[in-house]
Amino acid sequence: MYNSVMDHEATPRRRVRDPEAHRTAILEAARAAFAERGYARATIRDIARRAGITHGLVMRHFGSKEQLFIAAMPGPKDLEELMPGPASTLPERIARAFIERMDRADGNDPFIALIRSAASDEPTVAGLYSAMRERSAAAYRTVVTGPDAEERIDLLASQLIGITFSRYVIGSGPLADMDSERLIEFLSASLRAVLQGPEP
Amino acid sequence: MYNSVMDHEATPRRRVRDPEAHRTAILEAARAAFAERGYARATIRDIARRAGITHGLVMRHFGSKEQLFIAAMPGPKDLEELMPGPASTLPERIARAFIERMDRADGNDPFIALIRSAASDEPTVAGLYSAMRERSAAAYRTVVTGPDAEERIDLLASQLIGITFSRYVIGSGPLADMDSERLIEFLSASLRAVLQGPEP
DNA sequence: GTTACTAATGACCAACCGTTCATTACCTTT
DNA sequence: AAAGGTAATGAACGGTTGGTCATTAGTAAC
After folding, report:
1. Count of domains in chain A?
2. Which nucleotide is at minimal CA–C1' distance from B58?
3. Residues 48-87 of A with CB under 7 A from strand C
4. What is the dihedral of CA B10, B62, A170, B40, to 10 degrees?
5. How confident is the model at residue B4, as a pLDDT?
6. In CATH, what number is assigned to the domain containing residue A45?
7. What average pLDDT does range B171-197 have in this prediction?
């Protein structure tokens, strides 16, 4: 009477006792679920289903949905990989590092999962963008000079954010289908314009 | 026993009979709620509370949450305003039209509300970006020529998307604080680089 | 074979959601 | 003043969610 939904299966589930394997399976399933549905719409029951276990076990391993999200998502290290430190030939290096890393990432990549999750949850999206911007600033502050350096760096980050959504979040259309090398060329030209500033 | 949540108030609510005023109040409240919490997390009860009426009345006026969302959000006209048709001096006109329109918009602007909603809901974000891209293509296809015109247009759209998130969704940091005129100059230079393509 | 430990299960709960609908109160028309 | 129409209310419902917990079943040690 209380719960009209079947929360059980017809035949009792065969028990597999393997906590470590289950833990990693949950993390993988969580990344996929958060990426597909976003944090708010992803459910623990769905994550458990993907991992081939019950939702009670997910709670046992990670305590709460939020702790599971934190455990599944990447830390600052991944951002460092995306935007490596100062380089002499700036635009090309920045463009190449970003595009090549993102193009290589598969569906289970934690950074891709974070970006897709961010598209569905407000606190997450704010955190992601501030992280990307802060990382851009930390990486390029020493090589981007001038009185408006901070603004140029922010414009740089905004370009990366725009590419990210068009190519990796939506995942279809001309930009998504574009060859990596040509995209890097275009992005380099565009970043150079931003870093050099508006010249007549 | 069935519903443990209080769905009523202690003293009966004083009834105000004004369907038109209520309708517009609901639409305003809906834009605010969707912008703040995203489509999925926004609730009809909260929208009704903001509008000063009951959630039953929201259902009466708009039938369902989805229909309310559609009614509250802007149509293609707003995108036309954001990205006007072909112009001779492309980058400057594109940059100016976009930035000036967005900077002018207040918190209740339907387009701002749509963008903020998109940051919290997956179907919405996909719809928004495809709309922005299609509008970019329709607006600039006749003036952007060459074999890779579609890709350049898509890159243009991605830059607008990136600026949108950094400046208008997050709303803080160097790019958000930047003077409109300087931003237009920077964006023009960046768009020119994309539209002209990578030249050595 | 028995015991002890704990991984794993699944029934249950409280809260909240969108939606429905009988009831009520306001306003206009007679 | 009575009636009719309908704007507005709020109780109820079915469904889903994150979280709890008593029970069960694998497994290793003795």
Report:
1. 2
2. D8
3. 53-57, 59-61
4. 10
5. 39
6. 1.10.10.60
7. 80
Q: Which residue has the tokens 């830390």?
A: A75
Residue where the block lists tokens 């160097």: B174
- Concatenating the DSSP letter of every residue in A152-199 gives HHHHHHHHHHHHIIIIIII--SHHHHS-HHHHHHHHHHHHHHHHH---
**What's the pLDDT score for residue B17?**
95
**Average pLDDT rounded to a whole number, residues A155-160:** 81
Domain that holds residue B142: 76-196
Same domain, B119 and B66: no
Same domain, B80 and B23: no
Cα distance from B130 to chain A (closest Cα, Å)? 8
Same domain (yes/no): B39, B93? no
Distances (CA, A) of B187 to B96, B109, B163, B168: 9, 23, 9, 15
Instruction: From residues 49-108 of B, list those within 7 angstroms of strand C by Cβ.
Output: 55-56, 59-60, 63-66
- Both B60 and B144 in a single domain? no
Asked if strand C contacts A41 at the CB level, meaning under 7 A, the answer is no
Q: Is residue A14 part of a domain?
A: no
Are B113 and B49 contained in the same domain? no
Task: With a cut of 70, say whether residue B13 has pLDDT above it.
Answer: yes
> Does residue B113 lie within any of the structural domains?
yes
Residue A7 has pLDDT above 50, yes or no: yes
Q: Considering chain B, what is the average pLDDT of its residues?
A: 76
Q: What is the pLDDT of residue B26?
A: 97
Which nucleotide is the nearest neighbour of A9, by CA and C1'? Answer: C10
